Structures are given as C-alpha cells and as structure tokens.
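#struct-queue
[09:14] JT: dropping the first one here, sequence first, then the structure tokens:
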Amino acid sequence: MLIDIEGELIPRAQARWPDAVVRDELDNSLLDELPTIQFLQVPAGGDDGLKVARMLIDMNVYAPTRAEAFRLAIEVHDWITRVVRGSTTSTLVTGLIRCLSLPAERPYENKALRRVGGTYEIFCHPVS
C-alpha cells in the first residue's frame, strides 16, 4: 500500500509550527503567508514489493529574509531527522531517515522572499 507522505508530514509540521503555513503546493498569495514550509515528494524512490517504501522528500522554507529561512529550515531539519525518524502515527511507521542534501539557499524568482531547502530519504510503511 502506498502512503501519501506529504499528507502525513503536513499536519504534524503544522501542529509543530502553528505560526507558519505548511503545505505541498504554493499559491499566489505566498508573500502574505510567510513563513511557509513546503513538503514535496520527489518522483523517485521505490518499495520492496511487500511493505517498506523509500521516499524522497524536498523540504523548502520560504521567509522574508535569508536568516529567517535558514533558522526555520534548520528547525525543520532537526524535526525530520530526530522526531519523525522512528516515529509511529495511527497510519504510518517511519524508520530510517537520511538527509541527502542539507538545508541550503535555493534560487527563487521572487526577490521579496528567500527559500532554503533540503532533501530527505524516508523509509516507512503503513501501520499493520
């Protein structure tokens, strides 16, 4: 069974950062919704054909300044690698999580904000 990993991460992150907007897709009012944390599943990964899935997730933080974006991206990085790793929800068991790309500034066409993001490999399976 496949898992909507974005759907799993978004509500957990929204509860952790209630003053941020946490989403998968950006909308046209991004400047009015800063800071924003975005989770996107990368079209890669795979599964073992039985239960365990390997998913790649991009995490992006959008904030008014580079310093704010880095601060929040580091918090999210620590949360992913220390809190989400090894956790269980009512629908998902998360095992190993590896950071494939540490949070770094990523180009963004709107100069009124800054984007910092990283990429993570998440091994997980549905609760049985």
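[09:21] JT: and here's the second one, same format:
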Amino acid sequence: MSPRTKMPPQLSEQEIDQTVVAQAADDAAWEVPVRVHRTTPASLALPAELAARAAFLAQLHHTPSVEDWLRRVIQERVELEEAAFVGIKRSLAARAL
C-alpha cells in the first residue's frame, strides 16, 4: 500500500465548519487549554502620533503613567474580545442543536 492511500480524505471547509460547530459545546472534543506565562514584560513600539494621543488620554484620565493607562485599556479590550468569542461560541453551539 502506498503512503497516499493511508491518509484520510481531505475535508472541505464546510465539512470542517460543521464538525467544529457540532463539537463546540462538547468539552471532551477539545484538547486541554494551553496556559502560557510570559516571564519578562513585552515591549510595544507605537508611532509617535499614537503615543502622543495615548499620553494625552492618560493625563485626561488622571492615570499615573501612559503605561498604566495602556495596560488598562488593553486589558479591557481583551476582556471584551474574550466575552464576544464566548458569546459566538455559545450561539454556534445553540444553532447546531
């Protein structure tokens, strides 16, 4: 037997989508989440104009530093995105039923 005959058939994008939607609510179908912890702070380069706008807004919000304000804004945005993702996952699972 050649190696090509041992491979499973390729699924279409629609078949993959159907499988994911069908398994969305089934925790047993998913791998254990991977947790990653950064040991050192990350640096982020911003264009000068954007950094100046962020500095202005940090002052406007009486934040001690631009870094603190940016950290808070990014954290809030990540939480909003995660909540939206969970909502979409639930709606897809509900549609699959």
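[09:30] RK: nice, looked through the second one.
[09:31] RK: The CA atoms of residues 36 and 42 lie 14 Å apart.
[09:31] JT: good to know. The two ends are 40 Å apart (CA to CA).
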